[in-house]
Design brief:
With 657 residues, the chain is mainly β. The protein is 9% helix and 48% strand. A hairpin with a 4-residue loop joins strand 24 (324-334) and strand 25.
Length: 657
């Protein structure tokens, strides 16, 4: 077998190259081993480690300082993180954890805390520890925890047990357990009970709202306002109140009670200024003074400091001490001066003499304290005051009680003297009796007439039957009463009488006309029991079938029955005839009396047949003597009793029983 030299050479070359690669690899391996060994013998050099991918089971807890991006921080609809010492994040959490001196901003409102969970999108946060909200230098809110969301713009602050959330706005402080503050409308409110205080008052309620911008506060449910004044005892209780901390005015829209040292106010709608103690009250509010007097009306104005109340529309002023109620369309009450006035359908109701009530009407009714001397009102130390209470009703006075009715143009009641003065044509009725004069003075005892006096002309008449009246007149009259009935009567000066003595069979068949200087009569069961006249008593006793009409009436006789009040409502009936009467000259004068005026006569108590009888006065006629009228003396000379002596012609005490 032959060998090719070139083939061998090629083979040798391949073997040579393979041996070179092997020797090169071994050399390299030795260099690496020597390097590792050398490195192991030298100190290790610290190098920065490259970041490596970590598992979600191994979160990064290394804090960093947050970098606040540059942007417009004043966006009213977005909250921004302004500052924090540390920022942390956890994988799987949608919020960032900020710790240390944390500050957020929402428009003009800044929020501070120790730590917070911050939700950047959407903007929201949960703040913890030393929570504080600030707006400018006037509004501060303090709490222990805060929740806020841009979506609602509502911040909710919580307090730890034993502590309170506090809002401070200048001199206003609000405290509660949970406080809600709407940054969109700048309104704070609580729903779990809270207290608001300012420099004047303290208010607590179950629900409350407060607006720092308008200073308006709204309270609901168990609302209580208490004055913080050292000398004030104001308390307001209601279920709803609108209050302004700048004006200190409370607006009440539901049943409310205002209590103070000066009295109590009950209202369903009103405005009360706690700073000036003035109130505007509506819906028939009621003011009760500390002395028990009350004032009510459709609308009231009340000044507590002055003790002054003014009422409009259907007013009622009650004097509990004297048991009098004043009513009208307008009136006022002044507690300090103990005075009052009502007008416009003015009515006084006196109910001290139960069970009957006296109803009195005039255009105006006034009550006031009269001080003598007047200077003593301002200087009662050096000038001791003599005071008494007066009641004045005028003009066009009309009054009604079941047992007593009357009219006049002016009435005055003096409390100290227990006196009542009826002036200008007073007329008084009791059952079938009527008395009138120029002045009637009545002394009261326990609100009941004790005695009465007519110092300037008096005329008493009693209707008997048909056109017949017992009549008595004189310059002066004095009567005493017992159990609301007349007991005794004295008449002096130009005494004139017409008497119809009742027979044993209760009929009337004669008429007596008598004159004298003095008269004294005793009454029993509202009728004359005995009669005495002196010193001289000229007169006549005439059978009725022989008596002329001129013997039926005294010259001054007038019967005012149509003017008589017949019911409590009838006291408001001011007739034309009554107005005409009040304009007449005084009774008993030359220009007064039946012959010179037309006055109404009785038409309701008489039988209809009697009204048709000739000579009987009607409502539009005066009771005047006929053309054949004669004086009692002339009748005496022409009557069938001319030859009878005086004792036979004059009714004795027994004849008038």
């Amino acid at each position: 077998m032959k060998h090719n030299p070139e083939s061998r050479t090629s083979y040798n070359n391949r073997n040579h190259r393979r041996g070179g690669l092997t020797s090169g690899f071994c050399a390299a391996l030795m260099v690496v081993c020597l390097s590792v060994f050398a490195a192991a013998q030298q100190p290790a050099v610290r190098k920065a480690a490259k970041p490596t991918n970590r598992s979600v089971l191994q979160p990064d807890t290394v804090p960093i300082s947050p970098t606040i991006p540059r942007a417009n921080r004043y966006q009213r609809d977005k909250v921004f993180l302004e500052r924090a010492n540390e920022l942390r994040a956890e994988r799987g959490k949608d919020y960032q954890i900020v710790v240390g001196d944390v500050e957020f901003r929402k428009g003009d409102m800044y929020m501070y805390c120790d730590s917070a969970h911050f939700f950047d999108n959407p903007g929201a946060l949960q703040a913890f520890g030393n929570v504080r909200m600030e707006q400018g230098d006037t509004l501060f809110v303090y709490g222990d925890e805060l929740n806020y969301a841009d979506s609602t713009q509502l911040a909710i602050l919580y307090a730890d047990p034993g502590k309170k959330v506090r809002l401070i706005n200048k001199d206003v402080t609000l405290t509660t357990d949970i406080f809600n503050y709407d940054l969109g409308i700048e309104l704070g409110y609580y729903e779990v009970g809270g207290v608001l205080t300012d420099k004047e008052n303290r208010l607590d309620s179950w629900y409350g709202e407060y607006s720092p911008s308008t200073k308006d506060a709204l309270f609901r449910e168990n609302v209580h306002l208490n004055s913080l004044g050292q000398n004030d005892t104001l308390d307001i209780y209601t279920d709803e109140m609108l209050y302004n901390t700048l004006t200190h005015i409370a607006i009440l829209d539901t049943t409310s009670t205002i209590i103070s040292g000066d009295g109590t106010i009950y209202t369903r709608n009103g405005v009360y200024n706690t700073e000036t103690s003035q109130a505007d009250l509506y819906k028939r509010s009621l003011v009760v003074a500390k002395n028990g007097n009350t004032l009510t009306g459709d609308t009231l104005y009340y000044d507590r400091n002055l003790g002054f109340g003014e009422a409009f529309g259907n007013i009622e002023l009650t004097d509990t001490t004297n048991r009098v109620v004043l009513c009208g369309d307008y009136g006022y009450y002044f507690e300090v001066a103990d005075s009052a006035m009502v007008t416009g359908r003015a009515l006084a109701k006196e109910y001290s003499s139960a069970p009957d009530t006296l109803f009195l009407h005039s255009d105006t009714i006034r009550t006031f304290m009269f001080v003598t001397p007047p200077q003593a009102l301002n200087d009662s130390v050096t000038l001791p005051a003599d005071t008494t209470h007066h009641i004045i009703a005028a003009p066009h006075v009309r009054f009604y009680r079941s047992d007593l009715q009357g009219i006049c143009d002016s009435m005055t009641v003096v409390q100290r003297d227990s006196m009542m003065y009826m002036n200008y044509h007073p007329v008084v009725w009791n059952e079938q009796k009527q008395i009138f004069g120029n002045v009637i003075q009545v002394h009261m005892r326990d609100s009941v007439a004790d005695w009465a006096k007519l110092p300037d002309f008096g005329f008493m008449a009693e209707w008997i039957d048909e056109e017949f009246y017992n009549q008595m007149t004189g310059k002066e009259m004095y009567a005493t009463f017992a159990n609301r009935t007349i007991k005794h009567l004295d008449v002096s000066g130009n005494v004139q009488c017409i008497m119809l003595p009742m027979e044993n069979d209760s009929t009337y068949n004669k008429i007596a006309n008598v004159e004298s200087s003095f008269l004294s009569a005793e009454f029993k069961n509202q009728t004359v029991d005995s009669l005495k006249m002196w010193p001289e008593t000229p007169g006549t006793m005439t059978p009725l079938y022989l008596a002329k009409k001129s013997l039926f009436y005294l010259p001054q006789f007038r019967w005012f029955e149509p003017l008589r009040p017949t019911s409590p409502d009838d006291v408001f009936n001011i007739s034309y005839e009554m107005l005409q009467l009040m304009q007449e000259p005084p009774f008993g004068g030359r220009n007064s009396g039946s012959g010179n005026s037309k006055s109404p006569a009785r038409n309701s108590a008489m039988p209809p047949a009697a009204l048709k009888r000739e000579g009987v006065p009607t409502a539009s006629q005066a009771v005047e003597p006929g053309p054949d009228a004669a004086t009692p003396a002339e009748d005496k000379a022409t009557s069938d009793t001319d030859n009878t002596d005086h004792e036979a012609n004059t009714p004795s005490a027994s004849e008038t029983e």
